């Protein structure tokens, strides 16, 4: 069964490539949910991304995913500008937040698997200079919560509890298990 | 101050590059300690790697590091062959082990900073087929504990508690803080 990634995220694409998957990318623009219970929002968005692509590609398995960052019940989206990025990083510094990624695997317009994973991320205490230097790398702007753990943002993180890849954008170990059950092998012999 | 990495590990080199550090690599072969208290072994090896290089390069800061994998007090080294790799992975499956990286920062034949970090790593339950498929990727052979979290081995890991980069081979966030205190900036403006 052919796999299609219904996401524009370069990080998700890189993760699937890193683990040896063969896939194509296809995105059909959709309205994203942004209000409500965080888990509901992420599940809803994951399937909204995948379902239309699965309808347009009968017989293919389509992967939709949504990653949300929450602290004290607030969803931290992607900062719209540097000022908001600074604010978010200041809010995250010295605290533990949660990163939840929901995954929807769809085919022929139906959700076949839906699962989510949450990782707790503890940030170091950040100085004003550190926040400033990080914002100036340009990394925060297109990322939920204003940081990317796989880039320079990794230096802001003291420790995590849970799956690392989940924070990058896809919970690869559990995704691999689901894909395997659906007949798609994730890594093969070199 | 120029930075020298006293390690042959391609993973450590990649980590320093990923975070924008400028450095050279220089290795002076030394006898490694392998018996005794795990923390003692790792500290001893980290400074044994760095000290001779620092003597040969006056005025440079030399980074030595050693990563050890332990389960129930046993140190799991690098498997010598596929059979031992299978054994180690079978031992790790379904359990939590610890990965400790010790770092020694030396100059002019003296240890200037020495610190270590431990990350707990929980493996998924592994089937015989999974172990077999992973061993056949060739990844286990040159890695302590028989897996690499940054490669296909990441799929074997259910969750971690602590620093992710520490499991790859260097605790980058704390290393960055130490380097900054010694006058070496870890990431700079793009």
What does this structure look like?
The structure is a homodimer of 190-residue chains. Chain A is of the alpha/beta class and 190 residues long. The first copy, chain A, is built from six helices and seven strands. Chain A has a single domain, classed as Maf protein. Chain A is elongated and about 50 Å long. In chain A, helix 3 (82-92) packs across helix 4 (128-135). The first copy, chain A, is 33% helix and 27% strand. The model of chain A has no long low-confidence stretch (mean pLDDT 94). In chain A, strands 1, 2, 3, 4, 5, 6 and 7 form a seven-stranded mixed β-sheet that branches. Chain A has helices at residues 10-18, 38-56, 82-92, 128-135, 164-168, 172-181, and strands spanning 3-5, 24-25, 61-71, 74-76, 96-107, 110-123, 157-162. At the A-B interface, strand 7 and helix 6 of A face strand 7 and helix 6 of B.
> Helix-strand pattern of chain A, N to C?
EHEHEEHEEHEHH
Tell me the quaternary state: homodimer
Largest sheet of chain A: 7 strands, mixed
Q: Look at the structure and give the mean pLDDT of chain A.
A: 94
Question: What is the straight-line distance between the termini of chain A?
Answer: 21 Å
User: Number of helical segments of chain A?
Assistant: 6
Principal-axes shape call of chain A: elongated
CATH class of chain A: Alpha Beta
Gyration radius of chain A, to the nearest Å? Answer: 17 Å
Named at the architecture level, the CATH assignment of chain A is Alpha-Beta Complex
Helix content class of chain A: 25-40%
Low-confidence stretches of chain A: none
- Tell me the number of structural domains of chain A: 1
């Amino acid at each position: 069964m052919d796999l299609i990634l219904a996401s524009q995220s370069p990080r998700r694409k890189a993760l699937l490539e890193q683990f040896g998957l063969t896939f194509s990318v296809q995105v059909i623009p959709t309205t994203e949910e942004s209000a409500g219970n965080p888990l509901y929002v992420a599940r809803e968005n994951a399937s909204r991304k995948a379902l239309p692509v699965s309808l347009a590609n009968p017989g293919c398995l389509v992967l939709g995913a949504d990653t949300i960052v929450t602290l004290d019940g607030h969803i931290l989206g992607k900062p719209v500008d540097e000022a908001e990025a600074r604010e978010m990083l200041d809010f995250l510094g010295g605290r533990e937040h949660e990163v939840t990624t929901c995954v929807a695997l769809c085919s022929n317009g139906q959700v076949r698997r839906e699962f989510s994973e949450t990782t707790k991320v503890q940030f170091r205490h950040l100085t004003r200079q550190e926040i400033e230097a990080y914002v100036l790398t340009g990394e925060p702007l297109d990322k939920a919560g204003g940081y990317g753990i796989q880039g320079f943002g990794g230096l802001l993180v003291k420790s995590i509890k849970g799956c690392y890849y989940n924070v990058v954008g896809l919970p690869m170990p559990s995704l691999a298990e689901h894909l395997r059950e659906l007949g798609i092998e994730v890594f093969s012999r070199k």
